[in-house]
Amino acid sequence: MPSYNFSPIGSALQTQAVAASATKISTSNTIPGGARYAEGFVRTASIVETRDGTTPTATKGTEWDAGDIILLRSRREITNFQAIEKTAGSAETIDWQFYNRAPN
Predict the structure, then answer these.
(1) What is the residue-wise DSSP string for 21-77?
(2) Which pTM value belongs to this model?
(3) Between 20 and 30 A from 7 (CA), which of 28, 71, 88, 104?
């Protein structure tokens, strides 16, 4: 039996709007202090993301399509995550659920 709990942080389901310019998950209002793992659901259109602090472009970063699940496995990945729309004007969103720690 695990010696710790892997569970969502209460009231931590948040939505990130993704636009033509790079956006981060807000560190002041959105990311819970105890978040060490996050799962993001890409809603309606493709996005491109980076998690190393560099700014993504339509041709630089990892592409995710609508319906994909993005996993961020550390606090560093969560705070460095940035995303842009693959196609300008698609009004994309990512729904994030934050967890107290990563699963084994």
Answers:
(1) S-EE--TTTTS-TT--EEEEEE-SS-EEEESSSSPPBTTBSEEE-TT-EEEE-SHHH
(2) 0.87
(3) 28
